[in-house]
Specification:
mainly alpha; five-stranded mixed beta sheet
Length: 570
């Protein structure tokens, strides 16, 4: 399973500006870390360096973001795509949050570095710090995202509430509750003391919005940087609140690194967001989105439940330890709220699964109907193909095999005879005086005669025999495994059956030429020519008779064209 990281992005997606700012961030935090860790620096200098660095870092971040916003606004002329406008507005609030931190850190720095006294609480710095949380939340909510279904939106909302309730329960017992209980100042001081942990919960909610929602249209690098910045603020605030509560905090601690780091990471995220998208950027975003979809569903579904055992352990601890009642009641209330949210989450999951099952059943039924329709169409196509094949192989009027197919069967029979010596015979039939019949009674009557003759030929043929309409009033019969004498007897039966049949207007007779395959007749053309000469002789001799090709060959050779002469005699 592949995870899209910052290194996966194409070089031109990140760009030289991002690389310069990344180098600056790493160098800045590295120098600050050295200044806080080196033992040779006095506490006063460490305090000055720490305060100044906490002011300069968000100031640099704010200036980066305001510069990018100004440059992009001039480049787009105030217009741009809907996505570009949303990102520009979101980055504006990120820059305002960084600027609010500059004001707060500047006031704090004034008290500690210039006034040389402890920063009062509350002060104007706290107002600036408090403004950061709603500004950052607004920036996240304004970021562009693809539409998600109501069921997905409800799942994300309930999952976020479950995680927030778990964190709030812990915060109440360890940080928020003790801070409120220990505060003996004014109402404003108590409210500000409670707002910091609540604001941190808001930031954690922003992280959830970034990490849980699947169909976001921003690069995963920007998501990781924003989440890192928000988590850095939360870590710094929680450690600061805990140490302040126990009186152990002093400026120059390692925890102070997280505040400047937070806004530098947020500025880097804004740099990634503000880059114009090229075709390669679009490919990267699709790749990142595909990776998130492929790897996320299982752990995202289980993550809201991960803190349940820990909250349960805290409840058990409170029952056994018998600590302050106010803190314990807050834990019990948070646990009860968490149970209610889990119940609603399960109900939502059951309803969503039921909907999915209905959708699957509907899709299955639709698929079955489509498959049945395809099968019906395939059957219709098969029947149509059979009809087309039949039309291509049969005569439209009589239903017999047509001339082309008959000639193919005759060629195959000649090939078998030449290879295996299998005997066969050929009959050529012609309706006597058919032209006169057509002229006298009309073409419909002539067509009826041809159909009746075809029926009689099929009735007198064997299963292995092939009967065809050879052309016009001519018919042909291929008799496999039959010698000349057997073919003659078959021809006589056919001639007699046609002569005896009661046609509509007058008696109809046929003349038949018979030829059998012999050693000197190895090709279909020679065999047809022999049968045709015999048919001509039957016409010349008075019609309504059978003549063998052998008899014609033994008589004097004919000097005229038998086919043309036979047609004249028809």
């Amino acid at each position: 399973m592949h995870t899209i990281t910052l290194e996966d992005a194409p070089a031109n997606t990140i760009g030289p500006l991002f690389r310069r700012r990344l180098i600056f961030t790493v160098s800045y935090i590295g120098l600050l870390l050295l200044a806080l860790l080196l033992p040779g620096i006095s506490h006063e200098r460490r305090v000055v360096f720490d305060n100044c660095s906490c002011v300069l870092a968000p100031l640099a971040a704010a200036l980066w973001m305001f510069r990018d916003l100004w440059a992009s606004r001039n480049a787009e002329g105030g217009e741009g795509s809907r996505r570009a406008r949303a990102i520009r507005l979101s980055c504006t609030f990120l820059a305002l949050a960084a600027f609010a931190d500059v004001i707060g850190e500047g006031i704090w720095c004034y008290y500690e570095v210039i006034a040389k006294r402890e920063t009062p609480f509350p002060s104007l710095a706290d107002i600036a710090y408090v403004l950061e949380h709603p500004l950052l939340l607004t920036a996240i909510l304004l970021m562009p995202s693809r539409p998600i279904s109501p069921a997905m939106r409800l799942r994300v909302f309930l999952d976020s509430l479950m995680i927030m309730a778990s964190i709030l329960t812990f915060s109440w017992y360890f940080v928020l509750g003790p801070t409120v209980l220990a505060s003996h100042e004014t109402l404003l001081a108590a409210a500000l003391s409670a707002e910091y942990p609540i604001g941190d919960l808001i930031l954690l909610g922003c992280v959830l919005i970034l990490s849980v929602q699947e169909r976001r249209t921003i690069p995963s690098a920007a998501v990781a940087l924003l989440a890192g910045g928000f988590v850095s603020i939360v870590i710094a605030d929680v450690v600061f609140a805990y140490q302040t509560l126990h009186g152990t905090y002093a400026t120059g601690e390692l925890v102070d690194i997280f505040w400047p780091l937070a806004y530098l990471l947020i500025a880097l995220a804004a740099t990634v967001l503000r880059r114009p998208q090229s075709s390669e950027d679009e490919l990267f975003l699709r790749r990142a989105d595909g990776a998130r979809r492929a790897e996320g569903p299982l752990w995202r579904s289980l993550f809201p439940y991960a803190l349940l055992p820990v909250v349960a352990s805290l409840v058990v601890y409170c029952i056994r330890s018998r600590g302050p009642a106010t803190l314990e009641n807050g834990v019990y209330g948070g646990a009860a709220l968490l149970v209610v949210l889990v119940l609603f989450r399960q109900i939502a999951a059951i309803l969503d699964n039921a909907r999915l099952n209905r959708d699957l059943q509907t899709a299955y039924l639709d698929l079955q109907e489509a498959q049945e329709a395809i099968e019906l169409k395939n059957a219709s196509l098969a029947a149509a193909n059979e009809r087309l094949e039949s039309l291509a192989m049969t005569d439209g009027m009589t239903g017999l095999v047509n001339h082309r197919v008959f000639y193919e069967r005759l060629s195959e029979a000649c090939a078998r005879a030449a290879r295996y010596g299998a005997p066969f015979a050929l009959l050529l039939l012609d309706v006597d005086r058919f032209k006169h019949y057509n002229d006298t009674f009309g073409h419909p009557a002539g067509d009826a005669v041809l159909k009746d003759v075809a029926h009689l030929l099929e009735a007198g043929a064997r299963d292995t025999d092939i009967v065809a309409r050879y052309g016009g009033e001519e018919f042909a019969m291929l008799l496999p495994l039959n010698d000349l004498e057997g073919a003659r007897m078959m021809a006589e039966r056919v001639r007699a059956s046609i002569e005896a049949y009661a046609f509509a207007h007058r008696q109809i007779t046929v003349s038949i030429g018979v030829a059998a395959c012999s050693a000197d007749q190895e090709t279909p053309e020679l065999l047809v020519s022999s049968a045709d000469q015999a048919l001509y002789e039957a016409k010349r001799a008075g019609r309504n008779r059978v003549v063998l090709a052998k008899q014609v060959a033994e008589s004097a050779p004919l000097e005229m064209d038998p086919i043309s002469e036979r047609r004249k005699a028809s």
